[in-house]
Amino acid sequence: MVRKTLISNKAFGFLFLFIFLLLPSFISAQTQEYKDYTVEKGDTLWDISQKELNDYFLWPKIWKENPEIKNPDRIYPKQKIRIPLYLLQKEIPETKPKPELETKPEIVKEKPVEKIIEPVKKEYLVNKDILIAIGYIADSVHSVGKITDSPVDRTILGKDDYAYIKTDNPVKIGEKFYIIRSVEKVIHPESGRKLGYLIEILGIAEVVNQENDDVKTIITDSYDEIPTGSLLDNFYEIEPPLAFENPRKPDINGYIVATRQLHIINGTWDIVYIDKGKKDGLQVGDILAPTLQSKHKIINGLIQLINLRESTSTAIVRKCNNSITKGDGITSVK
Questions:
Q1: For the domain with range 254-331, which CATH number is right: 1.10.3470, 2.40.50, 2.40.30, 3.30.60?
Q2: Is the confidence at residue 91, as pLDDT, over 50?
Q3: What angle do CA 259, 320, 292 make, to 5 degrees?
């Protein structure tokens, strides 16, 4: 009897030691499920994805794992971001787990659980404000009216200000217009031919009242200062394109024909306009590489197309080593 008790105690001791040795590994696995990253000044999810995962185009997955980030273009210094461990280890070959002893699970009858299907979170290439504010290159400056003045005699207007407008045709209450201005005439830097006019969208105006010839509007959105005299164009809905996990890298060469730095409330972006568009087979989301003006072909970063017209495109600068200027080339990403 004493011998059996000793054997039992010895077996219990081995079991306790085994659990004690496994416990730290279990705790470590739990704590390493995510890697914490502290945002630095100038960081974007695009840059963080390259820095931490060696892949720019995994940024939508990082955003998806951080539901507290409502807008991927709004992250701030000292903000904590969680990077999932499975993304960090995606290049590490899987190792087969050691076979475990087969145990027969106890069969427990449970009530069926009703599945709650949550809406899929859409991941956009850029947000709507940026897509509207970047503008476009048009063959001519088209307008359907202009802002004449304001009720308080201000010459510079912004969001929630009222303004009087004059239009070519009768309007209705609730009708909207884009407020635009022509930035510059666009001339091709290599051939010298005229490509059109760079049009900037300054804001959106909505008709709220009409008395005789006085049409009163409210500026519902403003992306830049809006001076009286600004032109109006027809309003149409603009939807931002969805992000691509594996964007195309087309084989094409061309030129940057205009540049601008976009300043809106949630940040600053470098925008470029190129001399290639839909007719050249390009698509929204395509990645291209800008090149320096040099006798050597020197790659100067990455740009991504976010808006296309027939013969021109607009791109956002995702990365650059030196300033990108009008006349720089574009080429395929190798």
A1: 2.40.30
A2: no
A3: 70
